[in-house]
Amino acid sequence: MDPVAAKYIGAGLAAIGMGAAAIGVGLIFGNFLSGALRNPSASDAQFGRAFIGAALAEGLGIFAFLVAILLLFVMK
Fold this sequence. Notes:
It contains two helices and no strands. It is an all-alpha fold.
């Protein structure tokens, strides 16, 4: 296999991680909204935890983006 083709395949696979992070953030806030509608009095205590979970999921998405960029532009 050509190394350039392998580089593009690896970057494409790393880009899947960015999509998975977006799905994870959607699930976090969707489940938070579902729980907040069931028990509105507990939603204030859980709101900070939802943002922490979203930040961790987005951090993994940014890491996947970094890996994709490194594969495309730094690897020879």
